[in-house]
Protein 1
Amino acid sequence: MKKYLVTISLLFSLFGYSQKKVLKTKFISEKIEIDGKLDESIWQSAEIATDFIMFDPDNGKKIPDSKKTEIRVLYDNDAIYIGAMLYDENPQKILKEITQRDNFGTSDLFGVFINGYNDGQQDFQFFVNAADGQADCITTDTNGEDYSWDAVWNSKAVITDKGWVVEMRIPYAALRFSGESKQTWGLNFFREIRRDRQKYTWNFIDSKLGTFTQQSGVLEGIENIKPPTRLFLLPYSSFYGNANSRQKTTGTLKGGLDLKYGINDAFTLDMILVPDFGQTKYDDQILNLGPFEQQFNENRPFFTEGTDLFSKGNLVYSRRIGGNPSVYPTVEANEEIIDNPASINLVNALKISGRTKDGLGIGILNAVTEKTSATILNNDNKTVRKEVVEPLSNYNVLVLDQRFRKNSSIAFVNTNVTRNGGFRDGNVSALVWDLNTKKNTYSLNGDFKYSYINALENKKGINSQLNFSETSGKYRYGIGADITTKDFDNNDLGINFETNYYSFYGNTSYRILNPTKIFNSFTARLNAYSQFQKETGKIQSGDINFQINSSTKKNLSLGMGLNVNPLETYDYYESRTADRFLITPAKINMSLYISTDYNKSFAVDFNPSYQIYKEEGRNSYGFAFGPRYRFNDKISINYIINFYRDNNDKGFIDRLKDDLDPVTPATIIYANRNVITYANSFSGKYSLNSKMSFNLSLRHYWSYAENKNILSLQQNGRLADYTGYTVNKNSSFYSWNTDLSYSWWFAPGSQISVLYRNNAGAFERDINKDFRNNVTNLLNNDALSHVFSISVRYFIDYNQVKNKF
């Protein structure tokens, strides 16, 4: 009988968890000091949100009384206030590493999630850690958490003898809500107890469902508030000092303005006038031996903030804007290029984005880059001429995204690049859909894209994909297919490597939803993928992949992967020649990863891998090893070494064609080579407090490809020995980067940053295998370029200025 009573009690408990909790707030007229004390009397009269429930790892378990959590919410005409008492029976064990903004570090965490429209579509999330640091993001079920979004709000965290306290003031200008007199907001609270790796929410989040934002509670009681004028100005001034052995030391003073304006309660205009990206993170360049360009991360704040709409259909690669010139200068036999800019200056950029109460999202992005020329020297008469490599260019993105039933959407996306004069223009349109059942158990998503390149090339192509998957429960699966025609080209504003193929794929997975005796989490996944050349039907890729990812009760993360390519495949890209292919052998790849407990002062990541081909003597192996040490809550360091060796790799090095004999096919030259790569990265931080820190980042990279013997590609896709080629096509690339920076958030939204940067790099055909020399050759004044910069940005809120005057 007792067994049945326990079962019934559990069912009622879970049913209760599935209901939306309701919290009522109250209006205040007195001033609240954001000091983490909650000593104003008005706090005691506020309704309390409590009874938190575990989200991860033991989904559905109640929080213990010793970790009781009590939240109160108040509001006035300008902001909403949150007071949180987070009890802990061992306050001295609360983890509280000091970190930069948007970096949680090894710390306990409290968060509030607000949806001003209560439509389950988008949460504005605000976090405070136990070290008094802030983080914020916009979250959707489709795109996850976007921490590039930043708001200006106040908070204070204080550790007490009962646990820790958080006090927050979030101005309405940081939120989105309608102009209705009576407000009903979606609301949830979040707490992470870091030492136990346990995460709790106020309103129960059922991990069996494929949604997070639709399982919020409700905030009621807010009345007669108006959306404020959202006008923010961010003027800046920067100084740059540049020095290297090839030019005199120069100093440059810059100034400009970033602007944010709320067009209405839903839409925001972001604009940069005279942009300055001089302090963005350096790119991790590599020795690129493949047929495709290296893809870089976007580090410029304007192009990373609030870009969830622009990611629809995966059509925008924003590094195209201000990237490499679109054409290469033409030179005669007696000419040489003495200056060819590697990037194009951005004149200005703007974006408009937002979503209406009815779920219509609109995104508009526009950017203009300046006319840029290369300088060419005539070696006979020493005259110099200019040739345009990038004209004045305009980049545009339009997104219309209609959400419905809170969890589905259909979007139209258009990207176009218009270049002045007789240069290439590109236009791509797409229809993108993401359809989910009401209970978020099944999903149907895909897209249809059409590209058109102007009359200069007159190319038209399509790309389309369709996927169906089960998205809830322990066992899940998915199937899909896609097709890309030969002339599909979105590379003016996007990035795409492969065309002229069709593919089929599927996956199935198993995961635990609650901890076991050994694991806190465990997921096993099986994937299968096959790709075929569209015109011949030859298989270009075919692999079966099995992965396991897990974390143990002792916070040890473990994983393994097995990837099998059981068949020979036809590579149509490595030859760099239309309709020519290389037959690549079957192969097997195995990998492991181990990551120890980051809660401890010392932790290690280790990731070895081994790959063997069905070809004598051909294999590859490598590892990544990353120890990290946290000296205290202020100082930590992290080191990562990557090593990889590819034995008897077969790669393209040249193409020989007799211009006087257009009939005979070109001779395509390959090399049988060994490729060895070393990459060493070091980072460290010293945080004086949550608003002031020093950061150091170092990277040394060296990779070389040593050709052992020369081969030629036959018409049947096989390689044969070739003895008539004597050109040195070995490759060696090494680089060094250092960033030492100081950052101080001296006022809300306002920052002073100081950066010293040096870098060097070299590409050579002669390989020097002395590792020490490859480091020291970069660390001298002849090789290094130096940059010292100071930037001051000041945040101005129109509402605060208006109130003062």
Protein 2
Amino acid sequence: MNVGMRVRGGLLAALIMFAMPVAVTLAAGLVSSSALAQTVDSIQVEGNRRVEVATIRSYFKPGPGGQLDQGRIDDGLKALIETGLFQDVRINQAGGRLVVTVVENPVIGRVAFEGNKKVKDEQLTSEIQSKPRGTLSRPVVQSDAQRIAEIYRHAGRYDVTVVPEIIEQPNNRVDLVFTITEGNKTGINSIEFVGNTTYSAYRLKDVIKTRESNLLSFLGGNDVYDPDRIEADRDLIRRYYLKHGFADVQVVAALTEYDPQRKGFLVTFKIEEGHQYRVASVNYQSSIPSLDGNVLSRFSRVNVGSLYNAEALEKSVEEMQIEASRRGFAFAVVRPRGDRNFEAHTVSIVFAIDEGPRTYIERINVRGNTRTRDYVIRREFDLSEGDAYNRALVDRAERRLKNLDFFKSVKVTNEPGSSSDRIILNVELEEKSTGDFSVSGGYSTMDGPLAEVSISERNLLGRGLFGKVSVTYGEFARGISLSFVEPYLLDYRVALGLDTYYREQLPNPFISYGTKTLGFSPRIGLTLREDLSLQLRYSIYEQQITLPGFLDNCNNSFTNGLPFNPSPAFVAANGPMGAVDFSGMGLYCYGDGEASLPVRKELANGASLTSAVGYSLDYNTLDNNKNPTDGLLVDLRQDFAGVGGNVVYLKSAIDAKYYTPLVADIVGLVHVQSGILTEIGNNQIRMLDHFQMGPNLVRGFAPNGIGPRDINPYGTQDALGGTKYWGASLELQMPFWFLPKEIGLKGAIYADAGGLYDYQGPTNWALTGEVNMPGCIPPTNNPKLAPAPGTCLGLQLDNSNIVRTSVGVGLIWQSPFGPLRFDYAVPITKGPHDWVQQFMFGGGTTF
């Protein structure tokens, strides 16, 4: 029996041991069933202080029947963690209920920066995501520290370190402090090019924006290593080669390496030039039945026999596509195709005109403009909501927005609209400062030392208006001017400019008289093409001559046969005042050095009022307006005075400059200019309206140094100017290869020729009896004294037609202080009375 009992007891124990795991499994199943039975409203939340219970529950999304299974509970847990509101989130079962326990992140009381001197707090605050009164997130803080470091790296400081520090405060609040060690500026020590055989490194350094560090780098910022700028330089190099016929060019890589010993970067551009191609043929193929492709040929800038030019090709496509749109083919798309002959190195270009997708603009979104009005941005688009989508017009609008110079960055992107034939344009902008305060200084041989203070605003009131006030003060020139420009007159692409000015030119070593001018000039500018512009203007100004009294003390009054105001030289030459009867001897004005007759006549006539209308037509294909190496610039100007006022004339002038690259980075310049002043009716031309020329026509001569002149030896021998002039100049500009490119120095050698002639101003003055005399005989006993009676009574005019020529050398410096030029020229042929000035210097700066 005991044995049986033991057996039964053993079986019981075995059953119990077997049953326990089953019971546990059943219990777990019951708990799981309890969880499955949970709903969102039954979730218990613990540990929350600021976040509402309902908010936390909202992250749990129930399934069918409102139940929460284990998968949905896991999804809710992940969603809560991703909010960044909590340091910790735990989910437990308690009493058959789902319990969510949270530990909230603290609230940021303040965000501070320490050690930042080169970047302002405001800029850093705008870049980071952690904000005062926001929730602290440690991953976000680490991201902010990286963003701050990135800002410094873009400013060229790669040694920067950023350490975030979280300072605990009561009531679950913290202060966030970023401690910044800025480090030294990291510049570009050298820029090298590999694979360039056609263009030298010296030339290619002109193409890119990045510069090597030098002694004057502190005045600029392009020597700072910026990976974005380096990448943009790759594209600039590629586009430069494509513009000059290298259709196969590839800028394989832009390698950057930090040199710890030199504490700077070494940049190397690897280039595969390929061959230079020329255009073999240009054809036009249209798949649109009612549009003949040949009608668009006049908008092509690609010519047979010319070098392949990708830039000209792009502009041709744009102009042709816009013209097709104007003709009613809003969806026409122009696609260029180039078939290369690799043996002959030619390209056959075909412009294919096809019907594009019928897509309309649903909406144009403008973002990032906090100051600039929306309409200022939208008016740069030649299309609006509801119009047919035209990529060429969108690209043109983007280019126009960049040229406004209101924004740091402009990017126009598109996204699908509400239907397949709708598109949304997004204009992303980043604004920049558009106001300028400048103090400028300079020196010229005509005006001497000169200073200017100006305040200007390119985006006045955020309306795209331009305004400027400037004050000039110099040794021989002073003035004030106010300018205002409305670029869109009456919502048309027509610019209205208004200029008001007061100028005072003082007597200087080149002229004996001064002038005061007060004027007002409205103007209208129109862009006919990207390379052609027209300006219409009206000018009204009052001008008068000022002259020291001792240069205008000639008097025709006699008392008892004696001159009223004889000069000491006159008395010395002719004896005591009563010794001779002077009444019949004429006027002895030049006894102590009178100004020229035309000058004194202008003074006696008083202020003159000029009212003139005119225009300027400018053609510009220069590759760079500041430092051109290729292209043509032509300026044609005409002004007609006589629309009111008391001055009448027609003045015409043309100025043309042609730049062309030669060999070994040498640039050739051909400069021609000409002008003519035409008398209208019987209205005599004033001396002040004549052309005055000097080094601006032929270098080596003084300002007002050539042309018709009063050569009376007892006067001031003023230049009177001429009504006709012409000039021609040949110049070679070459770099100094032994100097770093970044210094900006280059030399020039040149030869000038020109002439100024045909004075048509006053030569007689009936009021005083002075006349133009063919000769002038001084006293034989003492030539330094007054003239002999009856001679030297008025203007002694040298109006000879002489061609002036000169040769010279120059030094051109594109300095950080502004453009400077030094010239030394030697006249080869000159008139007997010309004024020579072999050395010239001019330039200025803004700081």
